[in-house]
Description:
The complex is a heterodimer of chains A (114) and B (114).
Chain A: E1 3-5, E2 10-14, E3 19-21, E4 24-26, E5 32-39, E6 46-52, E7 60-61, E8 64-69, E9 74-79, E10 88-96, E11 102-104, E12 108-113
Chain B: E1 5-7, E2 10-13, E3 19-24, E4 31-37, E5 43-50, E6 53-56, E7 65-68, E8 75-79, E9 88-95, E10 104-105, E11 109-113
Parallel strand pairs in B: 2-11
Antiparallel strand pairs in B: 1-3, 3-8, 4-5, 4-9, 5-6, 7-8, 9-10, 9-11
Amino acid sequence: AQKITQTQPGMFVQEKEAVTLDCTYDTSDPSYGLFWYKQPSSGEMIFLIYQGSYDQQNATEGRYSLNFQKARKSANLVISASQLGDSAMYFCAMRFSTGNQFYFGTGTSLTVIP
Amino acid sequence: NAGVMQNPRHLVRRRGQEARLRCSPMKGHSHVYWYRQLPEEGLKFMVYLQKENIIDESGMPKERFSAEFPKEGPSILRIQQVVRGDSAAYFCASSPLGEENTIYFGEGSWLTVV
């Protein structure tokens, strides 16, 4: 069974500091994609970053980077230089090449402190 | 280029009534997905559709729920005889043909059953 685990229900970070949000997954499928989404209080789901299981380099998108450790089955999101607008729920998700659906973790609530 | 459009954003129904949620995918996208988010949880896959065709409905409850994506017009998620447990946020997402990792979510429809 596929499983995504986010062990941090809530995190706090000082403005302008970096923060790491944890995500681990469990699968025997060799081909998959890992995603992070941001859900602000307004509710929409905003795509942040994608990492393919065969990608050699960690994905980066502006202030977001994905610390992909395939052997450990982890795909942590690193947000650098946190801003007040980063306060939101963050969801890790996984999709397999053989399937149609995304599997989501339970989310981490990030609060940026001024 | 408009994003994925969902309406209504908020819907209140009494127990036993029907709820209809609509989703217009992004221009050029031929695949639509529906996800449900219960309070304090991540998104759970419900159904995956192409025009006039249900590809995967493995996440749909067996009764009262149905989805369609007609040749013309938006995709519709229909919930008949709603119960309190149906209260949730329902997200639609779309992707272009052949790019199933490029998935964009709508802003969600919040259903409240009273």
